[in-house]
Amino acid sequence: MTVLESRRIAWGASGRNGGFVSPGWAARASQVLKRVGPDHAKALFRLSMEGVTMVEEAIRDLGISDANVTPGILRVSRYENTRALEQLRDEQQAEFGRHLRLLTREEVQGLLLSNKYHQALLDEASFHFHPLNYARALAREIVRLGGRVHEDSPAVQVDLGGQEKTVRTPSGEVKAATVVLAGGGYTDSIVPALRRSFLPIATYVVLSELAPDLIAGAIRTKAGVSDGRRAGDYYRVVDGRLLWGGRITTRTTDPRDIAAVIRREIAATYPQLGALKIETAWSGLMAYARHLMPLIGPLMPNVWSCTGFGGHGLNTTAIGARVVAEAIAQESDRYRLFEPFSFAWNGGPFGTAAAQLTYWAYQGMDFLRERRSARAA
Ligand SMILES: Cc1cc2nc3c(=O)[nH]c(=O)nc-3n(C[C@H](O)[C@H](O)[C@H](O)COP(=O)(O)OP(=O)(O)OC[C@H]3O[C@@H](n4cnc5c(N)ncnc54)[C@H](O)[C@@H]3O)c2cc1C
Predict the structure, then answer these.
(1) With a 6 A CB cut-off, is 16 part of the ligand 1 pocket?
(2) Pocket of ligand 1, candidates 309, 315, 319: which has the most ligand atoms within 8 Å of its Cβ, to mutate?
(3) What's residue 259's pLDDT?
(4) 326: which of 66, 331, 349, 362 fits an S-S bond (Cβ 3.0–4.6 Å)?
(5) Looking at ligand 1, which residue's alpha carbon is closest to its atom 4?
(6) Is domain 70-128+200-288+353-376 given the CATH code 3.40.50.720 in the classification?
(7) Where are the chain's structural domains?
């Protein structure tokens, strides 16, 4: 196996993300259900759970101690939501054997000292970790098993038609019987049909100064926290610093000051963190197809796509890679579960505008729900 990477291993989203590992897909369960029906949707959710197990097993089997695994993901609601959370908890237990614990508003506010939050579901089987160290360890394992990893090697031209495929970089070429395209939000136009099937969407993360006492005045849990909004905030305390991610935009250039934008978000949730300084900020690109599900499947004989994981990629890239590998080795056809999520055109510049408008509409709906809840309280 030969891996070609334009820059460095995990230079893309896989090395820049928030590190939250949990079941599910970038598409909401309700959207998946609507498109494929209950049995198929359950099969896909089970795959997403298998993806979480794969990450856990890789960390354990390869002894990746610097992945710094910390158990617990807390999904908080910013409006009164007890009934819906109870229903979700019960469904997840009955269908998938997942044990989620419902925390009351009082319990949540004992952990997160913000008046923004209402109830939460605590998932102690999900976890957060150091994604870059994890990805680098996987690359080392590929090399140990006899694979080759070439960094600074962008695929700039491909010839995929014949039995033997050729992938060219500026300084060489690789001949292969099978090619897997996995460029995520950084995929360029070497295969135009694939590039037209998704939109690159940018999102942001910041890391604060070291301020354990100040942060403990706001956040009293080691679990990762994410709010229930569609492009909401997610954050966790890492060795006395706050790592906070959020916002999405279809502008793929960095905004002038990511840190200032996210700092305002932090202070709006936790006024007591208004003085917390941001030390580092970065952005990353995610690939979103119109249906928000990954683009997994053959593009032509022996040419596979394994991309489009959006903002929920840690478990899903793992299982996506497994089902493609199984298909190449002719061990299973589980990739067919992704057939309803086709490589449809993303709408070009109009697609970009539509994605941004949808995001603003979602923000508007979230805002109204919070306001209604605040009025009722
Ligand atoms: C800021 C941020 C926070 C996130 N937080 C989370 C989270 O907490 N939990 C979660 O589950 N998911 C999260 N995600 C989503 C997750 O990181 C992605 O879905 C996942 O990493 C995508 O993996 P990938 O391998 O498809 O793409 P990437 O990791 O982006 O890798 C693609 C690689 O392909 C390379 N490449 C592209 N084109 C070429 C070419 N022509 N030749 C050679 N190489 C090429 C790129 O350089 C890049 O390194 C987040 C994403 C971002 C950006």
Answers:
(1) yes
(2) 309
(3) 86
(4) 331
(5) 17
(6) no
(7) 70-128+200-288+353-376
